[in-house]
Amino acid sequence: MFEGVIGYIIGGAVIGILARFLKPGADPMGWILTILLGIAGAYAGSQLAAMLNLTSTLMVWACAIGAAIVLLFLYEAIRRKTPRAA
Fold first, then answer.
1. Which of 1, 53, 68, 84 is the most buried (most CB within 10 A)?
2. DSSP, residue by residue, the chain
3. What are the boundaries of each domain within the chain?
């Protein structure tokens, strides 16, 4: 889907930002975590699109953003369960 490391970083940033914009609620995380989450979502979404035999670029992006939103929910659930040090 993306070529090169810079492409993954830029694409991950765009997908992470779109996922955070579309997901309801506050997401208190920095831009580095947003990019990493977007990269992971892009990878998972592109794998899902390949498994579903989707070839449209728009559908691949939709899968990537959807996967990033799922990862946001997982991150939020893990963050709530982790006790904070006093």
1. 68
2. ---HHHHHHHHHHHHHHHHHHHS-S-----HHHHHHHHHHHHHHHHHHHHHTT---HHHHHHHHHHHHHHHHHHHHHHHHHSPPP-
3. 4-80
